[in-house]
């Protein structure tokens, strides 16, 4: 059977970009093989669907690089019973990967055009356990962020800091992942809620990612 160029490109993405970034979870690698990334990429950038780069979605938003999406997914250790909140739907691709692992995903997108496009792409892909909602997930109580507790919260982009109110939406045992900091270097931040008042924070790897819109920036000190 002849292997298509798309199949080859997907295989190379997994083997040359994602595995070398220590993404070795077989379930995640399977999801990356099954979820068709090219169908979530804007048509004008489809030739770059499997490239190791961010892709513009319009409205100042971006699709994260594949290796970054895969590593975040692995570090969250999502279980089949988990309920997930994603802030920043973007293309819908990460929501599809989350849906492949979790019981249910609520994904919030502040740009109506992106939310609508992601909704239709997810339906076309046969993903039925992801709900896309138009809402600014950076605002407390908007769009379902008050609907926790959640087992997993993912911020699909970078922020200056993680709001405390968002951590309060984690169930005990729940995990939050965000990319925190400022250029030139940011840190992936994983927060696990161990009890009502005990949160364990780790920062396992450095990266950079575009900003999520709406989250507060830290004050800039001037000398």
Describe this structure in words.
It is a single chain. This protein has helices spanning 5-18, 26-34, 66-76, 93-101, 112-124, 164-167, and strands spanning 55-58, 61-63, 83-87, 104-109, 130-134, 150-159, 170-182, 185-193, 199-207. The protein has a single domain (5-207), classed as Vaccinia Virus protein VP39 (Rossmann fold), CATH 3.40.50.150. The chain contains six helices and nine strands. Helix 1 (5-18) packs across helix 3.
Principal-axes shape call = globular
Determine and state the CATH class.
Alpha Beta
Strand order of the largest sheet: 5-4-3-6-7-8-9
What is the chains' assembly state? Answer: single chain
The CATH level-2 architecture is identified as 3-Layer(aba) Sandwich
Beta strand %: 25-35%
Mean pLDDT: 93
Order of helices and strands: HHEEHEHEHEEHEEE
Largest β sheet strand count, sense and barrel closure = 7 strands, mixed
Contiguous low-pLDDT stretches (5 residues minimum) are none
Residue share in helices? 25-40%
Structural class: alpha/beta
Counting DSSP H or I runs of 4 or more residues, the number of helices is 6
Radius of gyration: 17 Å
Indicate how many domains the architecture comprises.
Answer: 1
- The total strand number stands at 9
Say which CATH homologous superfamily is assigned: Vaccinia Virus protein VP39
**And the CATH topology?**
Rossmann fold
